[in-house]
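Please produce the structure of this protein holding manganese (II) ion.
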Amino acid sequence: MMEIIERLKVKGITLTPQRIAIVEFLGKSVAHPTVEDIHKAIKRKYPTMSMATVYSTLRLLKELGEIQELSIMKRGKACFDPNPKLHHHFLCRKCGKILDMDVDCPIIKKGWVSGCRVEEAQAYLYGVCSECLKKEQSAKE
Ligand code: ZN
Ligand code: MN
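Below is the modeled complex.
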């Protein structure tokens, strides 16, 4: 994550303590946080942190290609991914968690499909996550 901070410095981006806190939080997060999630977590340390600051920092990081905004919705809200590389996601219908799917989907690939040129392919899978399945199972026993 410090690499991002270095890259931002090189690009001449002003790094306020709030911006650094957002970058650091994103670096640690594996849960694809929403703007609200990020705001809530950072407000503990920076009580004056506004939603507008979180929004503008996320927009900046997205424009710089450091993070991506997922079009899959978490509790109806857009969520952010500190991994800017294209990868697939799984949404648990029970707990709402969004997990990375490190699978290579052979059907979903760049190339030609029905006469259309596919330039980007990102899959969203839906179902029940392993943790929720375990809970379901132990409730039955
Ligand atoms: Zn789940
Ligand atoms: Mn991801």
